[in-house]
Design a protein that fits this description.
Blueprint: H1 26-36, E1 40-41, H2 53-64, H3 77-91, E2 101-104, H4 106-118, E3 124-129, H5 135-142, E4 145-150, H6 159-165, E5 170-176, H7 188-200, E6 204-208, E7 234-239, E8 252-255, H8 258-272, H9 277-286, H10 291-314, E9 327-331, H11 339-350, E10 352-353, E11 355-356, E12 368-372, H12 377-389
Parallel strand pairs: 1-10, 3-4, 3-5, 5-6, 6-7
Antiparallel strand pairs: 2-8, 7-8, 9-12, 11-12
Helix pairs in contact: 2-9, 3-9, 4-5, 4-8, 10-12
Bound molecules: glutamine.
Glutamine (GLN) binds near residues 44, 108, 132 and 180.
Length: about 400
């Protein structure tokens, strides 16, 4: 995990803490650099377009209806009930809203609370690599020892390597499908293979499914928690951020057995007390949108995927079309500049912010850059124009 600047800070005071064991988020840093250099932000994955009008109205209505005090710590009842129905229909899993669903401050808190709920210091957690950068610090903060296994874009899992990663020390594995940054969508066969390893080694799967509705070419989302034998050994994490274009609302959730949820709820309570009450009310309304909403969302991102893919390919970047999520994880070795230098050059001189590949690896990734296409068509058109004009030194 690498940061854009020299991260060797002098820590004031005599005692170091876990915060000294990892750098700042490069993704969020790139957003600050994009603002500073007035660059187009294709780094952090959030839309620059509006969320649905129904959601804006629902949020205003909730504030006006005086839903402005704490919700119940595990989430407003109407939202947990609406989630239970949605998850039954879309993910084919049954959860009791009273005891098995916990509303959190985004999937970020959901992952952190899950890790803190599961880990005793020294436990190993398997982290498929490349990984969304938060999982590294999540492991360090919770006291887990990460054990990285490779995933390759559009290639089958290296089953022998995965089998060897599981041991008596393994407490959990982090799954992320559709995957950030690779765009891989795990098939039910791959998830069955992972599930069997979890069952054989008594391991909990923590699965981040925030991009569950952003899928291409007819692919279907499969939740590992829906596979037989995984009901009580999976924590499924979801969020409203990407599906409804409300990343700033910070509303996510965990789905897990009563025993696991009990621990998650304790951690969640003392971390945050609860997610924003009026926005929870608006999220319950979001879950009543018709199925056509989700089809349009996938279609919208499908055309943006093609647009950015063409822009990057025309500019000489080697890339693959992602199977899901809204990132293109390009290869940049042809340009002869490592990721951090390239990202700095791009944001300062090219007017485009992207994320250096190394922020998705514990070691490696210097030959990759990640671009998001979660932007308006005109934003992407302008980015493609700038990419074409790039004059890469080197
Ligand atoms: N998941 C998004 C990304 O990878 C946004 C990350 C964040 O900053 N919460 O860019």
């Amino acid at each position: 995990m690498t940061t854009m600047h020299n991260n060797e800070r002098k820590t004031p005071g005599p005692s170091a803490s876990r915060a000294d064991a990892f750098g700042e988020s490069v993704i969020r840093e790139m957003t600050r650099l994009a603002i500073q250099h007035k660059a187009i932000n294709l780094a952090q994955g959030f839309p620059d377009f509006s969320c649905p009008d129904e959601l804006k109205q629902a949020a205003c209505d909730a504030v006006n209806a005086d839903i402005n005090q704490y919700a119940i710590t595990w989430g407003a009842q109407e939202l947990r009930e609406a989630l239970s129905a949605k998850v039954s229909r879309y993910n084919h899993m049954e959860f009791d809203p009273a005891t098995e669903i916990t509303v959190t401050c985004g999937s970020t808190e959901a992952m952190m609370a899950s890790m803190l709920a599961l880990i005793s210091p020294g436990d190993e957690v398997i982290v498929p690599e490349p990984f969304y950068e938060n999982y590294g610090p999540d492991a360090i903060i919770s006291g887990a020892t990460p054990n990285f296994v490779p995933i390759t874009d559009n290639a089958p899992l290296e089953e022998e390597t995965w089998k060897e990663a599981f041991s008596a020390r393994t407490r959990a594995i982090i799954i992320n499908t559709p995957n950030n940054p690779t765009g891989k969508v795990f098939s039910s066969e791959e998830l069955r293979f992972i599930a069997d390893l979890c069952i054989d080694h008594d391991v909990i799967a923590v699965t981040d499914e925030i991009y569950e509705h952003i899928l291409y070419d007819g692919r279907k989302h499969v939740s590992i928690g829906s596979l037989p034998g995984m009901e009580d050994r999976t924590i499924t994490i979801g969020s409203f951020s990407k599906t409804y274009s409300v990343t700033g609302w910070r509303v996510g959730y965990t789905l897990a057995s009563e025993a696991l949820s009990g621990r998650i709820r304790k951690i969640h309570d003392f971390l945050t007390v609860g997610a924003p009450a009026p926005l929870q009310a608006a999220c319950a309304v979001a879950l009543s949108l018709p199925d056509s909403y989700y089809r349009s969302l996938a279609r919208l991102y499908e055309s943006k995927r093609r647009k950015l893919f063409k822009g990057l390919s025309d500019a000489g970047f080697r890339c693959r079309l992602p199977e899901g999520a809204y990132y293109i994880f390009t290869e940049i070795s042809d340009f002869g500049m490592p990721d951090i230098d390239f990202a700095r050059y791009l944001v300062e001189k090219g007017g485009i912010a992207a994320v250096p590949g190394s922020s998705f690896y514990h070691d490696g990734g210097a030959d990759r850059l990640r671009f998001t296409f979660s932007k308006k068509d005109e934003t992407l058109d302008e980015a493609c124009r700038r990419l074409k004009e790039l004059d890469i030194p080197g």
